Amino acid sequence: MNQTLDNSGSKHQRVFWFALLGLLILRIPFLTGMHFFNIQWTWTDIIFDIGTYLLTTFLVWWEIDHLADYHIDTLAVIIVILFKPIQTLILRYWGLNHLLKFPSIPGMIIWLIAIVFSIAMWRKRSRLPGIKPVNLGWLFIGALAGLVTAIVLSFPMSFQITTDLLSYRYFIDKFLPQILPSFVYQIGYAAVSEEPLFRGFLWGYLSKLKWREHWIWLFQAGLFTLSHFYYLNTNLISIWIIVPVGALVFGWLAWRSRTIASSMVAHGMMNATGYAFGYLMALWRLG
Fold first, then answer.
1. Residue in 276, 277, 268, 230 with CA at minimum distance from that of residue 249
2. CA-CA distance, 279 to 175, in Å (whole number)?
3. How many domains, the chain?
4. Of 6, 198, 199, 217, which residue is the least packed, with the fewest Cβ within 10 Å?
């Protein structure tokens, strides 16, 4: 009997390892490598988005009884379900020529994954933790942390702003109206793709290997920075300052709140407002 349980646990763990490895491969050798070496292939981002979303939702379902070990609570699950498909609607709202734009076939695949995942989670809803006021409080803290981080990093960010279109009128007309849809988009585009991996499953796996939390915090930040290595070709300030600082902030939020819901909101907020604050700082700095 014990041997049967051991074999079952071992099989479960192997499936987890393969899925986690798949997420890491999609992110670093594949997406980062393709962008770093400037390999122009239309389907690079689509394969990454769909593959990452599929593996992420699978791992959440697979680890349904151990989600707390990976900083995943009910709010995080809801964010994963809702914001990735909403990303496809935002692309349509913006009128961008993007393969994920609803109702393209890749966009519909995202919706299909979300629907199947939501049904699977609904059937197992009794095994999900309830939503407590403290969880909602951490969402607010996450949003505030993302906003403050974007403001703090606005000075280094300002050195990456193109000076050709610097004007307060351009900021008011082009940036301000897009902050809210960009916030929603960035949660689906960046946070859903990255937070479950770096601050969720990777963190939980290393914790089970008896890594100390502060070493995990630093390691995930380093690996997250490595996954943005393509910025070496374009945005040196991002790769050496903005991305590492963001990773440390997101990691701290997930660590302290014990839910990636807080880091997902922070991630979306920082990405949505970072360029805008950098633009304002560039306006102020250059007069």
1. 268
2. 9
3. 1
4. 6
Task: pLDDT band for 5, please (50, 70, 90 cuts).
Answer: low
The neighbour count for residue 232, using CB atoms within 10 Å, is 12
Number of helices (H) and strands (E) in the chain: give both, helices first.
Answer: 15, 0
SS3 content of the chain, % helix, strand, coil (to 5): 85, 0, 15
pLDDT one-digit tens code per residue, 141-166: 999 999 999 999 999 999 998 777 78
CB 281 within 8 A of CB 154: yes
Whether this prediction's pTM lies above 0.90 is answered by yes
CA dihedral 256, 259, 264, 265 (to 10 degrees): -70
Range of the domain at 234: 2-286
Q: Is the pLDDT assigned to residue 57 strictly greater than 80?
A: yes
- The answer to whether 241 and 153 have CB atoms below 8 angstroms apart is yes
> How far is residue 144's CA from residue 269's CA, in Å, rounded to a whole number?
8
User: What gap in Å lies between CA 63 and CA 79, rounded to an integer?
Assistant: 17
- Report d(CA 112, CA 81) in Å as an integer: 11
Count CA atoms closer than 13 A to 89's CA, side-chain side. 9
